[in-house]
Structure formats: C-alpha cells, structure tokens
Amino acid sequence: MNETKTAKIETGIIDCDFHQIVKNYEDLKHYIPRVWWDRLSAYEATLPLPIFKPIPLNRRDASPGNGLPPGSDPEYAKVDLLDRYKINKAILTGSLLTVSAHNNPDYAAAIASAFNDFTLDTWIPTDERWLASIVVATQDPILAAREIDRLGSHPKMVQVLLTDGSREPYGQRRFYPIYEAAVRNNLIIGIHGGGQGEGINPPTSAVGYPTTNFERHNILAIHQMSHLNSLVCEGVFETFPTLKVVFIEGGLAWVPHLMWRMDKNFRGMRSEVPWLRCKPSEYIVEHCRFTTQPIEEPENEELIQMLRMMRAERTVMFATDYPHWDNDTPLFVLNKLPGDLRQRIAYENAAEVYQLNPK
To answer: What is the pTM of this model?
Structure first.
C-alpha cells in the first residue's frame, strides 16, 4: 500500500471499494447450477485476459498465507485493513470484473448470482463492518433486474455493481430495467472499472487496442467518462430522479473537464436534449459520486484545486481498492486534504449516499 507517516485520521472512515475474492472458483459450485460446473474449472473461470500485465493485479503482501490469494480471507482482511486503519464500514465490490464481457449471458448471470450468495455466506457474517454489492452482468438487463430484486431487500446490500467495460453506453434505454430495480430496492448504482477491451466488449481505446498495459492503464478513465456522459445526456436522472451513481476506480481529474465541456455544449446544442431541465454539471453534482482510488497525484496545491473544482465536498468518497497493487491507505490519501474536505471524503459523503447509520 502507498503510505505516508503522518498523523492518524480522527474522523470515521468508509472504504467504498474492497475486493473480496474467492479462494478458488470451485467454491461457487454450491451456488451455481450443475450445467456450469465445467466452466468453473476453466482458466480464470470467467474470461482470460487479452493483454499482458507485468504487475499482478493483487498485492502479494496482502495474502493470508498458505498459498491463498490476497483478499480471499475475511478474518485476515479484517486485521490487515479494517482494524489497522479503524475503518467503520467497507463496501465489498468483488472480483468479477469481466463478468459483463462474457459471450454467454446466461453463464454470466449465473456466476454473478453465485458470487453474490458466496459473499453473503462467507463474508457478511464475519464482521458487521462489511457491506455488500449486488454484482450483475449487464448483457441481459432483465436477468440483472431479477437478481437485484432477489437480493435487494437484504440489509447489507447497499448497491448494484456494474463494470465500465460495456458494448453500449449505460444511459441507453435498454439498461432501464437495471435502474428501475435499483430504485425499487433503494440501492445505489456503482460503476466499477473492469472488462474494457475483453470478451464481447469494444477495444480499450477509441482507436483500437494498445500495445502495453501501461498504455492501457493511462486511458482507463475514458470508459467512465463515456458512461457518465451518456447517463446525463440520455436523461437517466430525469427518468429516475432519486437514482445515485458511484463511479469507482476511475480517477478524478477528468471530472471537472467533462463538466465544463458538457455545460458549454449544452448552451449550443440543448435542442437535441429537450428533456434536460438543468445544466449537465448540476446533474453530476446532485446524482454522481466518485471514489478516490486511483487518485491522480499532482503537487498538493493542484490536487486541492482539482477537488474544489469538482465540488468534492459533495462528490468524492474515499476508497482503498484493497488488495490491488496500486491501492491506497487512509494515511496516504486523507492526510493530503484540508480538514473540511477530509471529513466529507473520509466518511460523510458515503454515509449520506449509502444511507448508513451515524458512526
């Protein structure tokens, strides 16, 4: 973990992105129809990755030992993260980051459902600080909506998780069943990085496949930019006025740029979107939230300026991205912030969005 030796954070902390992992995909057999068992034994069980990544996704030092993968043992994670940094709540976002890139929508929906049940059985009972996401595959929004309704009333489920790798922008109407189900169950929509350029999804960049993972990693934010642009311009927040969307693991510096550009173009082209009653930036501040990791790291004064421009006192929430290789500790991120932003980003924004009890 990136870390600096500074004073401990005095405010409460909510971690909005913790990746729990199955020890082995065979563990999902208890939750998935027998017809899919052979696929669980295949490489990666969901999809092989199409680009070489010289740095493993997960930190080796986050492994609980005995050959187990990092993020696979809730008891170890409690000590290594929750207890160490006095984190009040951590939202589990899972490890099925390519589930919406699979060519078979029935298998994708089945493995997402199995993973959700695995999380509720294996992680949630171990500590009251864990909260969960309903992972869905977006290939078939009707199946996704059924999964949301199946688990949406569970008190520990706080959001529906989509990946930003997608064949189509999420503002388009075929995804409305997902939003209807989320609103019906009083859940947040989380859009997490993953699946870009894999399986049935388009290339990672707008001009094709990059040569290296370094090149790919530099431009991952374009996927979340595209979905945010679509959600606002297609009028999703007019159709679903109570809907909140959290953009997870997509960076932050692009947000002010997109807000300004959308507002400028709205003045000249608003006749194309007569359903929008507000400036695009107003929908973003009201309905959208963004997590810190992987935060851009300019000089601190420039970082604070960027956060002010995107109304971070309302729109930004803290995330570790544990146990990924580039994840951040509270000490690294929150101590860079002035006091008024620190408390909002560390705890209050997430507590308000996810409707959590006071600390």
So the answer is: 0.92
